Amino acid sequence: MDAPAEPATDLYINRDLSLLEFNRRVLEQANDPEIPLLERLRFLCISCTNLDEFFEIRAASLKQLLEMGAPAPGPDNMTPQQLLDEIRRRSVELIRAQYDLLNDVLLPQLAEHRIEFARRESWSNEQCAWLAKYFHTEIVPVLTPLTLDPSRPFPRILNKSLNFIVRLNGEDAFGRRRHRAIVQAPRSLPRIIRLPDNLCSSDSECYVFLSSIIHEHVSELFPGMAVDGCYQFRITRNSNLYVDDEEVDDLVRALEGELAASRYGEAVRLEISQQCPDDLCEFLLDHFSLDRADMFAVDGPVNLNRLIAVCEMAHRPELFYPAFTPGIPDALRNEDDIFAVLRKQNILLHHPYQSFAPVIDFVAAAAADPRVLAIKQTLYRTGAASPIVDRLVEAARAGKEVTVIIELMARFDEAANISLANRLQEAGAHVVYGLVGFKTHAKMSMVVRREQDKLRRYVHLGTGNYHPGTARAYTDYGLLSASHKLGEDVHKVFMQLTSLTQAKNLDRLLTAPFSLFKELIRRIEREIEFANSGHDARIIAKVNALIEPQIIDALYRASAAGVQIDLIVRGICSLRPGVPGLSDNIRIRSIVGRFLEHSRVYYFHNGGAEEFLCSSADWMDRNFFRRTEVCFPIRQRPLKNRLKRDLELFLADNCGAWELHGDGHYVRLQPKEGEERVSAQLTLLDELSGSAT
User: Fold this and answer.
1) How far apart are CA 305 and CA 45, in angstroms?
2) Which of 151, 288, 295, 407 is the Cys-Cys partner for 267 at CB 3.0 to 4.6 Å?
3) Angle at the Cα of 671 (from 666 to 676), degrees rounded to 5?
4) Distances (CA, A) of 114 to 206, 213, 563
């Protein structure tokens, strides 16, 4: 296993600032008038969710570094304090842009399309009556207003929950003067309420914020006292989980304890109504041990991401992307026996343009086939109601050997994965947890089948999770194969995951944390040798993130040697392109569109013997050194041609592509006058889906 080394240069874009830049690109989707209106609202909500996670994880980690007295600069030469200051500045701009877009653009345009958000001052008498009844029957029974005094301390505030600080004037029932109270909105309450159609103007859909209803009726929660102000606020907390692999004896119990504690981790951000007076802001900041720099005053609901509920409730298909049916490869369309197909040829699936159903069918066929003896599967994120898990349960109950490696530490999916693990164990499956400190991020499944007195292995390897939901929204590749050598390698990796012994003498696969990093470096150095000897040399990589310093340094060396390098990096990218003499042969773009670009593909020209690799791994320290990852080759010429054509399509995109400049900022590409419009996602949707309307 190779350990990460110190970076050779400081020519890096900061990873956290790069992540904020990605979120700005997501927000720009919400600002694009060519995108259907409710999809723009969805993009706005995604940008808010992304920012929540940024503060929960990245900003929280930086604040911890400061508290631990670790002011040393990182590879980008920024200290934690400098970085937090810049994060504050950029976050203020981003949040202001979010609320300006909502208030000045999206809400008025939604109203033009008869989707209205009724403000308190505009409620009709009939609406007031209905909302008053709703308040008393649906909200009051689950509210616990708490007046503050020395014997009644400030309540515990759940991470990212909706709360109100109330200014009171008067005496309580016991004759004591009261000044402040807290009202917490339970998570069981919907944040967006749809009014009955008969209370809206003709053909309109009307919605009301929960916060508006509570604001309107908050005085009824404090009879006998005057309410002089009511202001919503939300606290974001540190959501990092800490499990010591040297101390923990029971990972599930330790993780369950950490999950409960993380809901009340250290506060890192206060979002509050911009109408809130300074003294109440200071009161809250003081209570949560936050500084003014940690406070963000907003012009609207503090839980902006909850607006995504409207996308689920609105019945307006014309305001969404056109529906489509994912395609099925020709080889599978009229063939019931998937194993017979795979004995003839490999199948490369490209989701979501092509259906995830063949992957589910692969596991389902194995579960039902009496000749199948064993199924082995990794699960990182799969969803609470997973058809894959359903089939694995059926197989285990049918007496097959079912082994499932579940990564309990999959961030934000920990509780769901514990539940899945319990369900599989109850069915009789062997459940193995990922090794603490080395997340099992590989995406692979293997079926062992008896055929003509011998055993044969069938495998699926992917770049994305076994999650039918994300397979409709994320772009990923998946390979189905009956290759003997590939099956032998997958078997060895599964043995490694269960026995914790290293998988040696792999013929096809590269794995992290063992061979992947050094083999990628070797391939980059090989391109340098080709360039130095006067041959064509080229590298194309499509990943979600690029921050590993040694990989970046190797790419800098390759560029300086004349290797032509095209990088398609969706999110974080620390490499600076276009630096004279260092990276002027490197071009970097990000594709942001209807689908989340998630596939990882690596291409090396290799002196004309082109090499294509797909992987679960991004080019990050954690993927190379602290995760179990798998990288698999695509060797058949028709499949290689497909991958190359796809990569060229992404490099030709001038509709959803953003170009990274050396200063760390991105510029959106637009078709030049007379130039053909190229959208990689739309082209693939037209070519691969079963139908697009």
Assistant:
1) 4
2) 288
3) 140
4) 8, 21, 55
| 210-217 and 125-134 helices, crossing angle to 10° | 90
Residue 505 known to bind ligand: no
- Answer whether residue 536 shows pLDDT above 90: yes
Tell me whether residue 42 is annotated as binding: no
Candidate list 215, 351, 441, 467, residue with the active-site label: 441
Q: What percentage of the chain reaches a pLDDT higher than 70?
A: 92
Shared fold status for 324-508 and 512-692: yes
Return the CATH number of the domain spanning residue range 324-508: 3.30.870.10
179 flagged as catalytic: no
598 is in an annotated binding site: yes
CA distance 408 to 63: 26
- Three-state SS letters, 431-449: EEECECCEEECCCEEEEEE
Give bridge partners of residue 448 from the DSSP assignment.
374, 457
3-state secondary structure of 501: coil
Contact 648, 568 (CB under 8 A): no
Contact (Cβ atoms closer than 8 angstroms) between residue 629 and residue 614: no
Can you give the pLDDT at residue 145? Answer: 92
Provide the H-helix boundaries in 75-208.
Answer: 80-101, 107-112, 125-134
| Domain regions of the chain by residue span | 15-318, 324-508, 512-692
Question: Using one digit for the tens of pLDDT, what is the confidence trace for 476-513?
Answer: 999 999 999 999 999 999 999 999 888 889 999 999 99
CATH classification code of 15-318: 3.30.1840.10
Number of H helices, E strands in the chain: 21, 29
Cα separation of 371 and 455, whole Å? 10
- 33 CB contacts (<8 Å, ≥6 apart)? none
From CA 51, how far away is CA 60, in angstroms rounded?
Answer: 12
Nearest in space to 386 (alpha carbons), one of 415, 352, 353, 423: 423
Distance from C-alpha of 154 to C-alpha of 150, rounded to nearest angstrom:
9
For the segment(s) 512-692, the CATH number from 3.40.50.150, 3.40.50.300, 3.30.870.10, 3.30.2310.20 is 3.30.870.10
654 is in an annotated binding site: no
